[in-house]
Amino acid sequence: MRTGKLKTNNGYLAWLFLGPSLLGFSLFYLLPFVTGFYYSLVDNPLNGTFVGLHNYGALLKNSSFLSALANTAKFTLLCVPLNLILSLGVALLLNQKLQGRNLFRTIMITPLVVPVASVVLVWQAFFDLNGVLNSLIHALGYPPVDWMKTNWSRIVVLVIYLWKNIGYSVILFLAGLQSIPAEYYEAARIDGASRRQEFFRITLVYLTPTTFFVFVISIINSFKLFRETYLISGDYPHNGIYMLQHYMNNMFMALDYQKLTSAAFIMAAFIVAVVLLLFIVERKITNMIN
Amino acid sequence: MNRNHRIKNILHVTVLLVLAVLFMFPLAVTVTNSFMSEQEIADNYDPVTDKNVSSYNDDSANHFARFQLIPDVVVLKQYYNVLIKKTQFLFMFWNSVLITFPIVIGQTIVATLAAYAFAKLKFRGRDFLFFLYIIVMLMPFQVTLVPNYLMAGQLGLLNSHWSIILPGIFSTFGVFLLKQYMEQIPDAYLEAARVDGANQLQIFLKIILPMSRSGIAAMAILVFIDNWNMVEQPLIFLQDAAKQPLSLYLSRIIDGEKGVAFAASTLYMMPMLLNFLYAEKYLLEGIRLSGIKG
């Protein structure tokens, strides 16, 4: 058939369309990625000698790396479930016939487009030792809390993270909810199912692919939180929010490329693992539903 | 039943209203306070910004900052200072423009071409290559920081906007998003064009491009948001303060010139907000696309 012949031609044509992207991708992403891996295995970026996994071993004994790793892990464990529950809740609310639901939806995603740097001052004025939050606490007769310079800073970062990111997950959940065919609910109602049964047996089940995607994306976004903490508290924030990205950034400033690249590849390996998991689970779920 | 339903409805709207107020509050404060006089700003925020004066040691409420939504007197002094008296703001605004626009335009072109190849053409190693694109897209900036920095040094790009623009153009995010979109275009259209004797370039220009218009708009707006916001890259690549974008300027302004900080912040978020009001449906489309399985 004609199409068969054309498809063999696709080979080099595809490379033409792909060319510019692939060239830049190789130069600015793939090559740095591979070189980075090489740096993590030598003792010096320039004319280094091969030291195997020595850098990784040294890193795993480094206390500030370990605490950055622990902080990142704690933060991820806290923010991912919260993000899932809150955004699913808001999406369920917005999925009803409510007055002004489009306006609410718009408001939920506004933080997404607002540059972090432009509202930093408001967050600072809110959470500072002399800030608005403490004035409320003071008015209630309790001693003020130094939000940014104690372990409470984790909560501050969490609040800012949720403010910024919930809208994105809400939109994904809304799209997921709207793709569930109305007939399923009608059939369930005829069978006499309660609202609760509908939610657990239909909504949650058919929402699984979306939920899983939001789950993975929020894990990955929780690694990208550097911007917010950096803008609010600079290079060396309180120990409680000293994350892996701070560690890497500071290793860069200290020109300790071995520690930086090995830390980067531990993180990269983790991300690859999470994405592979996404692919595998996704396939399983799709098979199950079909 | 009906009454129950109505109570539930009111409850839900109330929850949403509370959330909406919380979500909009930081924005509202920033915008309204941009019309305050320097004195009024000092009155409200000195306990936070002026570390010498205030420490918490007695019970007076004056030691706390206040959020005041409505200015006592509306003045345009901040805007005058930011836009006319001090030129630094405009320079850095221009830097943000100089970095963001080439990235948006460049990535749109490069990604549209590549996405077509991934979505509609068959070639060896396609799935593996696309997997690599996704993995790289998900990596935090710091993962490739060192080699990127050394590479920029080799190419003589350090301290130049190009050290940020070039990697930005080739970011794989646009490819990912548009591939998702183009895969939804039915093959039948392409088959029909082929039967009519169109070649691949014609198919791309006459069918794929027009049909991908809203996908391309969605991609462009997401890329715009992401890059207008950027902090990490200029922090490393642009040591020269005169070349840095607004995001870094605003994080420093709080120490010295808080009297203009709100006007500067408002002006900084304006392009984003206007863009958002104008193109919200494309933004929504973009977010939805990112969630479709590849």
Automatic annotation (TrEMBL), chain A:
Keyword terms: Cell membrane, Membrane, Transmembrane, Transmembrane helix, Transport
All residue ranges annotated as the ABC transmembrane type-1 domain in the record: 69-278
Keyword Cell membrane included in the entry's annotation: yes
InterPro entries recorded: ABC_transporter_permease, MetI-like, MetI-like_sf
Family to which this protein belongs: Belongs to the binding-protein-dependent transport system permease family.
PROSITE patterns in the record: ABC_TM1
Membrane topology term: Multi-pass membrane protein
Sequence intervals crossing the membrane: 12-39, 75-94, 106-126, 155-177, 198-220, 260-281
Chief place where the protein resides: membrane
Subcellular localization, as worded in the UniProt entry: Cell membrane
Species: Desulforamulus aeronauticus DSM 10349
Name the UniProt record assigns to this protein: Carbohydrate ABC transporter membrane protein 1, CUT1 family
A GO biological-process term: transmembrane transport
GO cellular component, one term: plasma membrane
Keyword Nucleotidyltransferase tagged: no
UniProtKB/TrEMBL annotation, chain B:
Pfam families found in the cross-reference section: BPD_transp_1
Transmembrane segments: 9-29, 93-118, 130-150, 162-182, 203-225, 259-278
InterPro entries on file: MetI-like, MetI-like_sf
Domain ABC transmembrane type-1: residue ranges: 93-279
Coiled-coil regions listed in the entry: none
A GO biological-process term: transmembrane transport
CDD domains: TM_PBP2
Gene Ontology terms: cellular component: plasma membrane
Cellular localization per UniProt: Cell membrane
Main localization category: membrane
Topology term for the membrane: Multi-pass membrane protein
Alphabetically ordered keywords of this record: Cell membrane, Membrane, Transmembrane, Transmembrane helix, Transport
SUPFAM superfamilies, per database record: MetI-like (SSF161098)
Family to which this protein belongs: Belongs to the binding-protein-dependent transport system permease family.
Name of the molecule in the record: Carbohydrate ABC transporter membrane protein 2, CUT1 family
Species assigned in the record: Desulforamulus aeronauticus DSM 10349
Lineage per the UniProt record: Bacteria, Bacillati, Bacillota, Clostridia, Eubacteriales
